Automatic annotation (TrEMBL):
It comes from Luethyella okanaganae. SUPFAM superfamilies: RmlC-like cupins. InterPro entries: Pirin, Pirin_C_dom, Pirin_N_dom, RmlC-like_jellyroll, RmlC_Cupin_sf. The lineage of its organism: Bacteria, Bacillati, Actinomycetota, Actinomycetes, Micrococcales. This is Pirin family protein. Residues 194-290 form the Pirin C-terminal domain. It comes from the Bacteria. Residues 43-142 form the Pirin N-terminal domain. Belongs to the pirin family.
Amino acid sequence: MSNLEREPAELVCEYIEAAAGPDAVEILQAREVPLGGPRAMPVHRTLPQRRRTTIGAWCFVDHYGPDDVSTTGGMVVPPHPHTGLQTASWLFAGEIEHRDSVGSRATVRPGELNLMTAGRGIAHSEVSTPGTTTLHGVQLWIALPGRVRDATAFFERHDAARATLDGTEVRVFIGELAGARSAASVFSPLLGAQLDLPPHADVTVPLDPGFEHGILVDAGPVHLDGTAATRTELAYLKPGRAVVRLRAGQDGGRIVLLGGEPFGEQLVMWWNFIGRSHDEIVAFRGQWQREVIAGERADGRFGAVDGYPGRALPAPELPTVRLKPRG
């Protein structure tokens, strides 16, 4: 998925130590961002934000739907670039057609992970299918460590691994939880899972104490060790926890559990690029504009998305000031 903001903020992403005690639950609020479509489908973005920019290598969380496609026009995201990251597409309802510049054409469906590793550079498009009436899911980005961030791009698709915890259905799409392990290729220790809590569920979820975790509430509220988190909120848990207790009300709940070892590298994110410096971001943007928008095909970093019935997305204008490193 693209960041379609016309004036995207440049952001230095780094591990931010939680100020509260080891058992505290930090609630992060989402901001609403318009995304594609003739009438701009709204998404709720909880990462990145200045208060917390990463959770493990997870660096971008967009939560959307349930969206009435007849009203918004659904998802229509033209070809756009990525560098230095993986995109993880995960749906609760609806379908999306994915095309990319390494020749992949796939349909994203509920319960199936579509994972695109951008590496040195890739372009892709995302459009909800004609038969989709309701679109509902999350789009996630994973920052690639420096040792692999310039690797050749590739795409893969996996069914989620399934398990149960105290009557709660667990679908693991990245990493391992409750004895279920995903086959997805990741390059740092990570966890990604959907948990569907039945009415009045009370479940203790095992956690890796070396991970920090984020719990995105899709349906709720859900209480985390007594702290309530409501729909679209992201609850942050700092490293050191071995378990978290989740309780649902009479309507049950659904969460997306994200986790990973604190990411030890500083990142610079702007638009759809992840780099390590302001100059890298400027270079990525320039190559996209020359290769794809102007058609010069410089060194082929991004390639072309075949079969998309329209033009690629031009990059926004860069800020007029240079990014000042922080941290």
